[in-house]
């Protein structure tokens, strides 16, 4: 695997490790993604299998299979990054992290989940 793809796979794996660390090992979890190399990589697939996560991938070239992710990235671009110019990748990464952790997950309400924020929805689902 070329080094750029290895880096992307490592970042994806690190993100999943952080999610498992924060929430604990899931009892039942389905991870749905596109067929990107970061998700088909051996380290990512091993991490998912080792933690009991079932992987699901959309059909090649079919954005409708992953509509939730497509919607998220559209919202991210419109609400946060569209008119910004970042001097460095680290600055962009920090800004996107801030948007997700301080606004999108805890505060931004979504009509598809009963006008709750993702964190509120997750909390209710965990109690059910």
From TrEMBL:
Q: Where are the transmembrane segments?
A: none
Name of the molecule in the record: Mobile element protein
GO biological process assignments: DNA integration
Q: Where is the Integrase catalytic domain?
A: 1-126
Pfam families attached to this UniProt entry: rve (PF00665), rve_2 (PF13333)
Q: Which GO terms describe its molecular function?
A: nucleic acid binding
Q: Which PROSITE patterns match?
A: INTEGRASE
The stretch of residues making up the signal peptide is none
Please name the PANTHER family in this protein's record.
TRANSPOSASE INSF FOR INSERTION SEQUENCE IS3B-RELATED, TRANSPOSASE INSO FOR INSERTION SEQUENCE ELEMENT IS911B-RELATED
